[in-house]
Amino acid sequence: MFELDEKTRIMKLHSRIFVGNLLIKMYYPNVIAFLSKKVGFEEAKGRVFRIGQESARDMLKVTAPKIKNIKTMVEYWFKLMWHAKPSKIKVKKEKDKTIYEIIDKKCGVCDPETELEGVKMPCISISGYLDACMEYISKISDIGSYKVQTVKSVAMGDSYCEHHIEITR
Amino acid sequence: MPGVNKLSWLRKMLIGLGKKIYYRKTEKVNVLGVNLMLRAVIRQYEELIGNLQDALNEFQSQVMITADEVITNLIHEPLMMGVSMSYALSRDIKDGPFTIQALIYGMIGKDYKKTFEYPELVLNEDQTGKFVIRTKGASCILCSGVKDIQAKDLGNSNYGNILATLFGTIIRQSWNYLETPYELVEAKETKCLLRGDPYGEITISFKPKAT
User: Fold this and answer.
1) CA–CA dist B34, A23 (Å, integer)
2) Which of A44, A82, B45, B52 is within CB 3.0–4.6 Å of A35 for a Cys-Cys bond?
3) Cβ within 8 Å of residue A91, ≥6 positions away
4) What percent of chain A has pLDDT over 90?
5) Which among A53, A27, A137 is positioned nearest to B36, based on CA atoms?
6) What's the predicted TM-score (pTM) here?
7) Going by DSSP bridges, is the β-strand pair A161-168/A97-104 parallel, antiparallel, or unpaired?
8) Could you tell me if residue B109 is left (phi over 0), alpha (psi between -120 and 50 degrees) or otherwise beta?
9) What is the predicted pLDDT for the residue at A1?
10) How far is CA B191 from CA A131, A155, B201, in A?
11) B26, B41, B65, B169: best mutation site toward chain A, by most A Cβ within 10 Å?
12) With an 8 Å Cβ cutoff, are B35 and A31 in contact?
């Protein structure tokens, strides 16, 4: 019991500490390249998405925010993960759906200088993070069905990365 | 010959200031986030390679190649105000712990005190020796979030060798750049919480260069 309490305490401590992003920028392109080489990019995409999803699920268990609002949750996540807000969140309401367009001009994982042959949108892991955030909210609030996807990426020559959360009621 | 023979108090003071400014300006990512992401990545590698030991070895060999490239840039290219990391380097081995501590600060900021002990230098009479970098108790930035790995799963591999590789690469490249009379023997994780040790530890051993 003591050991578990101590582990939880340390995880909480680490959720409040930030390290230079060099570590991520150093190993992330290798991960994408390795997965793409092993299973092809289409399957690698799913695996990279799961990497984000699994790590965000575990992180949200530790920090357990009491947030039900989607925009607030996205801002919370960016602040928690990168100590920064996304550049812009546009909310587009349509008849039967709402789309949250998350524009990120300082992507935490994309490195425009690293060319990954045959790889599109390496920051798809961020969609995985956001999907876990939506899953978290859906457990405490009825938000309808949702779909998260990355639509733009600086690694593909776009001027910023963009992720969409589509809510259908 | 590049670099200085010994870090003066003035240079140490400037490094002390520089590491704070560097950390403040640098892009950051959450420590627990990296920790959990790393575990999720290794899980994918395990699925594709078949076991944890080979997955860790594969990942580490990839990190080793990239670390070399990244550290070369850090040493030679200006980090801020036209100053590169080489400003914090000296040929005096006794400056090692100070420089390593400054590097850790540059990476993790003032919270390094909550996660790392001050680095230790063990210097033998024959000039062989080692730098020992320990985590503050169980506060390991790499594996604090790992709950599903047992010591037996690790085999001969080390979860923390990723960090050991990073420190080892910095020291090896710095010494090459400075043309010091030492060479790196090995950088590896020597204690690990996942193996049941009370703290994590990285040991970087060195010896005098053969003349």
Assistant:
1) 8
2) A44
3) A71, A98, A99, A100, A101
4) 61
5) A53
6) 0.90
7) antiparallel
8) left
9) 43
10) 36, 38, 5
11) B41
12) no
Residues of chain A in Cβ contact (below 8 Å) with chain B: 6-7, 10-11, 13-27, 29-31, 34-35, 38-39, 47, 50-52, 54-55, 58-59, 62, 80-83, 106, 108, 125
Alpha helices in chain A (DSSP H): 2-14, 22-63, 70-82, 124-140
Establish if B72 touches chain A: CB-CB under 8 angstroms: no
| Least Cα separation, residue A96 to chain B (angstroms) | 34
- The pLDDT, as a whole number, for residue B127 is 92
Which of A7, A15, A26 is closest, CB to CB, to B66?
A26
Inter-chain contact A11–B144, Cβ cutoff 8 Å?
yes
DSSP secondary structure, B35-75, as one string: HHHHHHHHHHHHHHHSSHHHHHHHHHHHHHHHHHHHHHHHH
What tens digit of pLDDT does each residue of A139-148 get?
999 899 999 9
Structure token digits, residue A145: 């069905």
What's residue A62's pLDDT?
94
Which homologous superfamily does the CATH classification assign to the domain defined by A4-168?
Trafficking protein particle complex subunit 3 (3.30.1380.20)
Q: Test A20 with B28 for CB contact under 8 angstroms.
A: yes
Which residues in chain B touch residue A22, judged by CB atoms under 8 angstroms apart?
26, 70, 107
Q: What is the ipTM of this complex?
A: 0.92
- Whether B44 sits inside 8 A of A47 (CB atoms) is yes
> Distance between alpha carbon B170 and the CA centroid of its chain, in Å?
7
Residue ranges of chain B with per-residue pLDDT less than 70? 1-2
Each residue's pLDDT tens digit, A41-59: 889 999 999 999 999 999 9
In the block, residue with structure tokens 């009479």: B125
Domain assignments of chain A as residue spans, ordered by start: 4-168
